[in-house]
From TrEMBL:
Its EC number is 2.5.1.61. Tetrapolymerization of the monopyrrole PBG into the hydroxymethylbilane pre-uroporphyrinogen in several discrete steps. Belongs to the HMBS family. Its cofactor is dipyrromethane. Pathway: Porphyrin-containing compound metabolism; protoporphyrin-IX biosynthesis; coproporphyrinogen-III from 5-aminolevulinate: step 2/4. GO terms for cellular component: cytoplasm. GO terms for molecular function: hydroxymethylbilane synthase activity. Residues 286-357 form the Porphobilinogen deaminase C-terminal domain. One of its GO terms (biological process) is protoporphyrinogen IX biosynthetic process. Keywords: Porphyrin biosynthesis, Transferase. Coiled coil: none annotated. Residues 63-272 form the Porphobilinogen deaminase N-terminal domain. This is hydroxymethylbilane synthase.
Length: 370
């Protein structure tokens, strides 16, 4: 196990196939951030480039590690475009490449995540490539990042957050409320199953894994009557035409860090840390810190339905958190409000988690692990 416990919620957390991705998304420019901690670094691997018959210069290729799903690649392309927009030296030919790494979570699709090791299965192999120097940064969907990061890595950067809500998708029904008794809803997320069954106990929820396109195809084939997908992923893949309706937070509280992209580097990689400091979106990072502090306090896993969402308006942060039983028979929730600072974000998330843990008692959490 490569996870290593740390006190700060942002220090959480095969066959390999590589490819250099050439098809760019629309370039997006973000202002360079300031005040971010920069850690010391191992430089990117040098590569020799012959520029004439008698002259050779040394060039460094900066490598982005990612999963190979369409959504993961869209996020890697976005990261690449932001790096090129903000750092002119990365616009040079051969300066950037994207390396696809197949993870265990991508290979095993016929079992629930909770039965095969949890969300870390989508990040472990990429983090291993980061630690051994095959890639210089790792691009993750933050909701897939385990509570603790592998030792030797940090996650100092979150890109501006996408919409955090869930989308309801069905070819037969216009809303969750229209689903008849016994209707089958496909979902791989226990927090969705918990919230669905708490409000609509007459529904049947089945395990529904695979990338976004695979789930949409299964829905079209009639495998299920409806499904719920993260709106952020549908937007990034330009698949919003499939949406039947968007669920508000009071209908379906999102997963911790949903809609956020996190970028990790090696702890001592000063060059990568400089680039990531320039891409970091501080309001997103603070919200994610709060949500992950909540997750850490609950010691949450893929076997525990947990949802949490922090928002910032001006200098005020608001947080809503939830934990429940998989069958929806019991759901505990809480809210917090405080200053939008790192210290306050950590405190709010931790205290919210501790409150729900105390309210639930040990039997509550033992039950969710059955």
């Amino acid at each position: 196990d490569i996870r290593h416990p740390r006190s700060h919620p942002n220090n959480f957390p095969v066959s390999h196939h590589s490819d250099t991705m050439q098809n760019a998304m629309v370039s997006t420019r973000v202002p360079l951030a300031s005040g971010n901690r920069v850690v010391t670094a191992r430089a990117a691997r040098p590569q020799r480039l012959a520029v004439s018959a008698s002259v050779a210069v040394e060039r460094k290729t900066f490598t982005i590690g990612t999963r190979g799903s369409p959504l993961a690649l869209a996020q890697a392309y976005l990261t690449r475009d932001l790096l090129k927009s903000n750092f002119p030296e990365l616009n040079e030919e051969g300066a950037l490449e994207i390396k696809i790494i197949k993870t265990t979570g991508d290979k095993i699709l016929n079992q629930p995540l909770a039965d095969i090791g949890g969300k870390g299965l989508f990040t472990k192999e990429i983090d291993e490539a980061l630690l051994d120097g095959r890639v210089d940064i790792a691009v993750h969907s933050m909701k897939d990042v385990p509570t603790y990061l592998p030792e030797g890595t940090v996650l100092p950067c979150n890109l501006p957050r996408e919409d955090t809500r869930d989308a309801f998708i069905s070819a037969k029904y216009k809303s969750l409320a229209e689903l008849p008794e016994g209707a089958v809803v496909g979902s791989a997320a226990l927090r969705r199953q918990c919230q669905l069954l708490a409000k609509f106990p007459h529904l049947k929820v089945v395990n529904f894994r695979g990338n976004v396109q695979t789930r949409l195809r299964k829905l079209e084939e009639g495998v299920v009557d409806a499904t719920l997908l993260a709106l952020a992923g549908l937007k990034r893949l330009d698949l919003t035409e499939h949406i039947t309706t968007i669920l508000e937070e009071d209908e379906m509280l999102p997963a911790v860090a949903q809609g956020a992209i996190g970028i990790a580097c090696r702890t001592e990689d000063e060059a990568s840390a400089k680039y990531l400091a320039g891409l970091n979106h501080e309001p997103t990072r603070l919200a994610v810190v709060c949500e992950r502090s909540f997750l850490m306090a609950l010691d949450g896993s893929c076997r525990t339905p947990i949802a949490g969402h922090a928002t910032i308006e001006g200098d005020i942060m608001r947080f809503a958190g939830l934990v429940g039983r998989v069958d929806g028979s019991r759901v505990l929730s809480t809210t917090r409000e405080g200053p939008a600072t790192e210290e306050s974000a950590i405190k709010m998330g931790r205290e919210a988690g501790e409150q729900l843990k105390a309210e639930g008692g040990p039997d509550f959490f033992d039950w969710t692990d059955q």
